[in-house]
Amino acid sequence: MKSENIIKDTTADAAAKIHNGVDQAEDTIDDSVDAFSARLASLETQLRDSGERLLASAKQMSGLAEKQVRTHPLAAFGVAFVAGIAVARLLRR
């Protein structure tokens, strides 16, 4: 009977230690997920801001290019022609 109590106590102690270990692992994982979520949200915000700046810059460059083409149409045609020849030569190889 005494050995049965020892086995039960040992089993209960082992189960308690395993349960505590699982709880600690769960807490660690929860903390890691929370930190990862916060970092991901920060990166999402940075990416969105960068995209908006890029879009604004592209619109500005497009406006400048349109202005140059309207101001110097013959030069724009020449640049486009030369660029077309260069691309055609690169594609032939």
Describe the fold and architecture.
This protein has 93 residues and is mainly alpha-helical. The protein has one domain (2-92). The chain contains two helices and no strands. It has helices at residues 2-71, 73-92. The longest helix has 70 residues, at 2-71. The radius of gyration is 34 Å and the shape is rod-shaped. It starts with a helix and ends with a helix.
SSE layout and pairing:
Layout: H1 2-71, H2 73-92
What features would you highlight for this structure?
93 residues, mainly alpha, 0% strand, rod-shaped
Biggest β-sheet: count, sense, barrel? Answer: none
Mean pLDDT: 92
Q: What is the overall silhouette?
A: rod-shaped
N→C terminal distance: 91 Å
Please give a quick description of this structure.
The chain is mainly alpha-helical and 93 residues long. 97% of the residues lie in helices and 0% in strands.
